[in-house]
Specification:
homodimer, about 325 residues, alpha/beta, Rossmann fold, 2 domains, six-stranded parallel β-sheet, five-stranded parallel β-sheet, about 20% strand
């Protein structure tokens, strides 16, 4: 195992959550990887409904479920005391327990003891794999497209997931590659780049999109922004290790400053393109921007199309809201 | 304690080493921080002589020594079994034991037990401080100069140490800031940037050169190279967090490719300057290159001066070999 791997099928745990807003991981998995989901497990009768069969842990084990996936976050990112009996029950039934919240499952002695006895795994998706290598910069076969953001939280993960979906619909050979904890929970595998020790960042990125068939596309979730005062080194490590042939700039319409770093103006899309090409061409001289993905949710419905049309003219590139328009226009520009 | 801190004065441990080449840490401390060294401790009569008094551990404890510093590396970076009695004796005598080799002192149960019982510390300088923050990008008072390399191992650490020495000689208010394990062993404090989890890289760099008096210079040891396929993200995090006013490009005369990454040509000094200014001006719009420090040891003695003169004309900057010429020409260019 080189990247983190979550064994399917899953029983998705939503605790006592009722609103999808507070169970983004559960909703994300059910939206993007329904084929990996066998059922849902709620503490309450009117809990969040992901549209999956309700299952007890025993039923899930009998149905061949392999992982009990924590799909909700408690306030503060902990593992509440009242979850522990259930998590233990899942381990006892032979299921791995998988968590992406801040508190690590492997730091809870009670769970560690049960896992050791039963052989079930506690999978913390925020813990990078051990023994990551230093990046080599050696060219790998296969093709890669990376999401680059003007900021954090602008839709890089969902753009990549939408591209993978749309590429597969066309019969293209493509895989989403998750580089952050929510993406890993959704995809069932990946490496949490922001938790990697910095010496091994580009090496971890190399593992994330390994050598592949010549026509295969890795669609790589981006991290941070190359202009981010806190996180740009994560972005650079991912860029250098991914050696992308193509990239998409992801942006949120209306955002003016770097979120929570208000004294830093948001870079322009042009600046992100220029810097990405400048830095990325060391590992791939053919690197180019193939489109812009915009989260337009802050715009009035009647302004949306105008905004994208004007942006597209300015950039000379396909510009779409991937969750409304899909990503076909960008994929057309790949060939 | 925000950065790692080694308590002076030191007893320097050289085990059974005879050659300074294999005890670079010991020699580095004795060369650059003799005032912090009380004595040396060798297993053998004809061991490496740092020019310090030979001391037993009891003598050192009686003389007020606070740290027993491992100044040599065993083959493979381990802690040999035959060192353990001595390390225990130091802990028992109330000295901290300090190591910078790959194997962590805190992973050796026998030493951990003694440290817990005696209250002496096991200081692993490759282990970053806990609870590092995310970088804020906020401007700090005081001035900063950062070493940038065309590659790893081109003299960034020794250039910074020479600059600190030469600045202090002029009565300037300056401190060397160590960003790697050998530098930390020499300076007695610092943060090993390459071991920091990547989300906290620029935050760690901000801690390394904290707010200071307006005329104070932090002379910051650089890491890697902004063009390095394995380590450029470490370099970027250090650059962004340091928000330097000035930088020096460090280079080794004659090097043509990135060492151990032979398919990557070495960047030119001009490329390093251009990229450093491009990336660094986000956190300091006044950033500028003030000189070039060249390790000329690969050149014939009669070629050295010509080389530096030609380079200086080409760059329009002072170019020196810091270990031969000192760094006054670069310091002159700071004001």
């Amino acid at each position: 195992m080189i990247t983190i791997e979550i064994k399917p099928p899953y029983l998705i745990f939503v605790a006592d959550e009722k609103e999808p807003t507070y169970a983004k991981t559960a909703s994300g998995i059910a939206d993007w990887r329904r084929d990996l989901c066998a059922g849902q497990y709620s503490f309450i009768d009117d809990g969040l409904d992901l549209g999956l069969p309700n299952m007890t842990i025993d039923e899930a084990a009998a149905a061949g479920v392999k992982s009990f996936v924590i799909g909700t976050a408690s306030v503060g990112g902990g593992i509440p005391e009242e979850w522990l009996d259930t998590l233990e029950e899942a381990l006892e039934a032979g299921l791995d327990v998988v968590g992406g919240v801040h508190k690590k499952l492997n730091d809870i002695p009670r769970l560690v003891a049960v896992a050791e006895r039963t052989g079930s795994r506690l999978v913390d998706v925020r813990t990078p794999p051990a023994d990551l290598p230093v990046g080599t910069g050696r060219k790998r076969s296969g093709k890669r497209i990376l999401m680059m953001g003007t900021d954090c939280a602008v839709g890089k993960k969902y753009t990549a997931l939408a591209m993978e979906r749309d590429m597969k619909k066309r019969g293209m050979n493509a895989d989403f590659r998750a580089s952050g904890q929510t993406g890993i929970m959704i995809a069932g595998r990946g490496i949490p780049m922001d938790a990697v020790v910095s010496d091994f960042l580009s090496g971890a990125a190399e593992l994330l999109s390994p050598e592949n068939e010549p026509d295969h596309w890795d669609v790589i979730e981006g991290q941070g922004s190359i202009f981010h005062p806190g996180y740009s080194s994560v972005t650079l490590g991912l860029l250098i290790g991914s050696q992308p042939d193509a990239f998409v700039v992801c942006h949120e319409a209306g955002r003016k400053v770097i979120e929570e770093w208000d004294n830093f103006p948001l870079p322009t899309i042009e600046q992100v393109i220029e810097r990405t090409v400048d830095l990325g061409n060391q590992v791939n001289p053919n690197i180019r921007c193939v489109g812009v993905a915009v989260n337009t949710s802050a715009l009035a419905a009647e302004d949306r199309e105008d905004y994208l049309e004007i942006l597209s003219k300015r950039m000379g590139l396909p510009c779409v809201d991937p969750l409304i328009d899909g990503t076909d226009a960008i994929i057309d520009n790949l060939s």
